[in-house]
Amino acid sequence: CRNIYIYIYLRRFFHLSSSAGFTLSFFDRVFNLLWHLSLLDFVNLPQNLLHDENEYYRGIIGPGEPDLWDLSKNVPALLINGERMLDFPRPLSIHITFSGELGLKKAPKKVEFDEKIRAILDKPSKGIIVFSLGTVSNTTNMPEQMIKSFLGAFAKLSDYTILWRMEGKVKEAKSLKHVHLLKWIPQKDIMKLPNMKLLIAHGGYNSFLETAQAGVPAVLMPLFADQKINAMRAQRFGIARVLDKLHLSPEIVLEAVRDVLEDESYTRRAKKLSLMLTDKPTTRPYSTLNYILKLATSDAKYFTLQTAQKLSFIEFYCLDLFAMLGVVVLILSIDLRL
Predict the structure, then answer these.
(1) pTM, to two decimals
(2) DSSP type of residue 84
(3) Which CATH number fits domain 115-278: 3.40.50.2000, 3.40.50.2300, 1.10.10.10, 1.10.760.10?
């Protein structure tokens, strides 16, 4: 369902690789249109993945049964991994729910870190900076220029404790006692600490969501896929600065990091956004989840998304109505000339 949702709803407004934020110029919209119409496998990844999944599904159920395309048109509800407040404005059915809206608002439990992490976190400093490019990116292949850019910036931040998720070895980092290279970082737990000051990340949706929920400002360097548009969203909310991975230097990285650390407006907006996400009004705990479970077990087959699924391209954009209005205007203009 996640793939179907992305293709039907998201791509009608913003392409996943778009560098635009909420406001699109004419050229931004041209870029999105060209990418939307592109036949590249990566661009149409959600649709192409569904074709592969269909082949696998057919091998299990055999011929003659409805495929995943047909089944997707009869789903009673869609559960989306994310927060409605962080998403782009769009027309959504009442049966589409964001998973960030589920659950009780429990006070965070005290996290117990292992001895190595705890020893690092307990070192006296102005605060903690976490640098992680996610679990998908292979950090052993990080370009040398990128490594030097961040190392050069980190060398000027000796009053902070920096945790860098790095699978490979960086010899130059050994001389920086405040920089700690780790193959794995409990990022979500560390971001809840009161002395957590900044996240440097790639702009993956999980990192974007964790940043917003924890109320921690960020410096984001998108690498591929939806990371660029996530980074632009964070920048629009005023909780992040965005770096261009192709134009890096120690000075550029340091300027962005210091700007976020020293300008209190980033932290203030991040805390405000976190409060908005954690203090949403709810009438009953797990009410949405109960509703979805009821739909799954109910015989009320009319609770589906069929109407939205069956809208054609012309109907969705009302092109037939605009064409009719154009014809009427054309006829009236001809009559006035006569």
Answers:
(1) 0.75
(2) G
(3) 3.40.50.2000
